[in-house]
Amino acid sequence: MLSNAEHALPTALIVDDDYVMRMLERETLAQFGFDVLEAADGEQALDMLDDPPPDLLLLDVEMPGIDGFEVCRRLRQRWDMARVPVIVVTGMDDLASINQAYESGANDFVAKPINWPILGHRARYVLRSAQAARQLSELKEKQAAIMRAIPDMIFVMDWQGTYLDYKQGYATTAFVSANELLGKNMAAVLPADVAMPIQQGIELALLRGHLQTVLYKLPMPDGSHYYEARIAPNGVDKVVIVVRDITTQKLNEDKIRRLAYFDTLTGMPNRQNFLERLDHELLRARRNHHQVALLFLDLDGFKRINDTLGHSAGDYLLQAVADRMKEKLRAGDFVARPALDESGLHFARLGGDEFTVVLPDVDETQTVSMVATRLQALLARPFLIGTQEITVTSSIGIALFPADGDDAATLLKHADTAMYHAKDQGRNNWQLYHQSLTTQTTARMALESDIRKGLERDEFRLLYQPQVSAADGTIVGIEALIRWQHPQHGMVSPAQFIPVAEESGLIVPMGEWVLNAACRQLLEWQQRGVCTARVAVNVSARQLRSPSFLDRVAAIIAETGISAEQLELELTESILMDPESRQVQGLYRLRALGVHFAIDDFGTGYSSLSYIKRFPIGMLKIDQSFVRGLPDGANDAGIATAIIAMARSLDLDVIAEGVETRQQCEFLQQAKCPKLQGYLFSRPLPPDEVEILLRRGSIPLPGDHTTSQTLSGRACNPQ
Ligand code: C2E
Ligand code: CA
Ligand code: CA
Fold first, then answer.
1. Tell me, what CATH number does 176's domain have?
2. Where does the record place the Response regulatory domain (predicted)?
3. Are residues 543 and 686 in the same domain?
4. What's the 624 CA to ligand 3 centre distance in angstroms?
């Protein structure tokens, strides 16, 4: 690119057969700063082109041999000489030869007689303009190469958006082909929602003289394509627009965003997304003095559905719930402002079966309670999963900004607390957060640490409640029921601490203590010759799920040396819905040792009766809620009778618990319920008191005066 002229003096080759002319020309050009070479004819001139190549030729036309026109023509055929400026010296001042000079490739001409000072200026000018032309063409070539290498589409447009020039990028999918574009206005080619922002970008680029970027989307045969247009001002009334197809990048970005910010199962915003956006929304609400409501929704008994129908059914249900919520919230069925933005801050899935709904600008709590009620009604409509119809209820906790919290995290925590309160209130309802709930939570935590201490300090005791034969009042077993001998609060009922123990996991060590205590008591009675029949011990679901539990049972039996036949474990109905094979196997192992199993509170759960056969269950305990309504409650009577009949057909033993009245007892006797338990026969008693009953062996049934009441020293006959 650098010419000789930039290093040293430019070289001029003078070609003339006339020696005098050559001399005069040399003098002139040397004065104008040229290094001069001479050739006496065309042949010689062509031979001299290489060493060193001249920067300018001054070429006489009339020469013997090859004339000046021919020299010029041949010179131009060489690629490296194509641009060397040539001035032709004509003797003929006629138009024809001037024409011929240009046609053979000359850049300029001078006619004889020569005006010498002008020749010098001309030579300089021709050289300069040739250099400029060469630089320009090199620049153009470079530009063309760059353009070819650019994957983008490039447009030149005027300020009104008319296409002036166009280049298709090799990697950019064109919306309209080039020949359809030129001369047209963008507004006639692109959809209005794309043309408009580009037009604005053009105007801004020209106004401010800065690069503007516009992102847009166009429908293409293979789906939507995303583009980024960079608009650069080009002069005062034109712009260059470089358009890149960013579809792949955009899709990747979207995917990453979705993964980081959206729940993959439901496509709803996730917790992170939700918290960030809620904080934003709160900032705005604070500025505008608006109230914001946060609804925290949790499905009731979702785990049970997951366990009974399988995880994929559970996932499907969550999707269906999400879809139903999205659809209604988008449609604006619940609130005036349908969504905060396209991504929908309005709802999010925090994980599991927990969803949140945000209501911005709520003027009164009534609006919130209406939304909560409608949401619950919406979800309460049955869902079809496969062929199965499922109905779910939900519990909702509500926290309000700014009253219940100043930031997203606090608000969420309080809505969560309120949701738990709704669960405590029997599920399928909504609750507003209030300060006392936090107090309750604190109280719960205090209770937890109290229970822990209670276990360490051995403050728990067992009471025993007899179970009798419905035929003759014989004591067939006793159920161990825990009590807390609290140093300050006196005797605490399990209803107060079992739920907290379950939630915190303390039920595991507590359950182990119960089992140990019951087995040791059993052993002590046996050693003193007291007939105990069977001892029933309650086992909570959480306890049963603890991996070490079943091993511990076997170990305790071995350690105490009691007969496993005398131990009955009362399991909750949920075991039937959670047939985890490891657990079922464990139960069979214990059954093989001799341990009995009963299903407690039977009839309150959701269990599929056909599952019972999969477990080594020997006994059903009819829940006291059904016994309470006997004998007049038609429903309860029906359920109790049905359970008894079903148990018989499955070859299971049955006991009715919570028998308090003579009428209940008689009804159950008539219904052929083989065993009974309840205050009518005995309350749960401390060991020394129950021992007296055990020694007697039976408890008189109402209306029965014949049953023996003494029988101390009766033969032990555990069933
Ligand atoms: P549950 O297993 O259903 O125990 C029967 C409950 O009914 C006992 O309440 C008992 O005192 C009460 N009850 C017995 N007969 C009658 C009656 O005629 N009328 C009425 N109204 N109630 C009667 P308790 O001892 O307060 O226990 C409550 C629950 O706490 C138990 O219900 C059981 O689920 C749980 N629980 C008790 N001890 C333990 C334990 O050692 N481990 C575990 N995991 N849970 C226990
Ligand atoms: Ca029980
Ligand atoms: Ca029970």
1. 3.30.450.20
2. 11-127
3. yes
4. 7
